Amino acid sequence: MTNTVTMNNNNTNNNATDENRKKRKVKRVSIELGDLTQHNLKQLKVLNRDVFPVAYNEKFYKDLLGAGELCKLAYCNDIVVGAVCCRIDLSENRRRLYIMTLGVLAKYRELGLGTLMLEHVFKICEREGNIDSIYLHVQINNETALAFYKKFGFQVISTATEYYRRLEPCDAYLLERALKKSAANEQTAAATAVQQSAKKVPAVPLSTITDVD
C-alpha cells in the first residue's frame, strides 16, 4: 500500500523570474505500510522510545512479532517513521479491536501517515466481519490526538482515572467507534464470544498518547 504526497520545497518569491520559477524543485514523498519482522523489530523499539513517553517491555514486543496484520510499520521514503499495533480483545461478551499504540515521529506528521494506519485498522475489521467496535485510550490533555480520532467517528465513552501511573496528567479518555455488522456476522460474533468467555484476557497496556497525523 503506497501513497505519494507532492511537496513544494521552495518559498514563493514575488520578484522571481520565469526562469527561477522553472527551477523550483518538487519533492515526491512516498508513504506506505510494511510488516513487522525480527529484522526491523529494533526500529520499532527506537521509534516507540522517541514517540511515546513510556517504555514497553520485551514481552510486549515479542507478542507483536506474531500479530501479523495487527501490527504495521509506516514508512516515508523507505524510512520507518510510524507504527500501529493492535490486538483483538474478547471481553464483555464482545469482540473488539484495541489500538495499543499508533504514532508518528513529529517531523513526519501531516503527511497522512496516521490516516493511512487508521484506514488499515478499518480494513482489518472489515475483513474480519465480526468486530463490534474499535477502541483505545488517549491521555486527556492530548487535544491533537482526540481531534484526529473524533474526525474518524470515535467518541469519548468514559474517563479512566490514574490510567498512566508515571505520567501527568495520569487520566485517559476511553474512545470507541462502533461498527455496523450484518445479521450473519452478529451470529458469528455471538458464537465467538461464547467460545472465548472462559479465556483470560490480557491486561490493557498503555496506549496511544501522542499526536498521530
Textual characterization of the structure:
The chain is α+β, with helices and mostly antiparallel strands and 213 residues long. It has one domain: Aminopeptidase, CATH 3.40.630. 29% of the residues lie in helices and 31% in strands. It contains six helices and eight strands, in the order βαβααβββαβαββα. Strand 4 and strand 5 (94-104) form a beta hairpin. The radius of gyration is 20 Å and the shape is globular. The model is unreliable at 182-186 and 188-211 (pLDDT under 50).
Please provide a brief summary of the model.
With 213 residues, this protein is an alpha+beta fold. The chain is built from six helices and eight strands; from the N terminus they run βαβααβββαβαββα.
- Going by CATH, the architecture would be 3-Layer(aba) Sandwich
Number of domains: 1
CATH superfamily: Gcn5-related N-acetyltransferase (GNAT)
Mean pLDDT across all amino acids = 82
Number of helices: 6
| Name of the CATH class | Alpha Beta
Given helix and strand content, the structural type is: alpha+beta
The CATH topology turns out to be Aminopeptidase
Report the sheet-strand fraction: 25-35%
Cα distance spanning the termini:
17 Å
Helical residue percent band: 25-40%
User: How many individual β-strands?
Assistant: 8
Protein name: N-terminal methionine N(alpha)-acetyltransferase NatE
GO biological process, one term: mitotic sister chromatid cohesion
Biased composition (Low complexity): 1-17
InterPro entries: Acyl_CoA_acyltransferase, GNAT_dom, N-term/lysine_N-AcTrnsfr
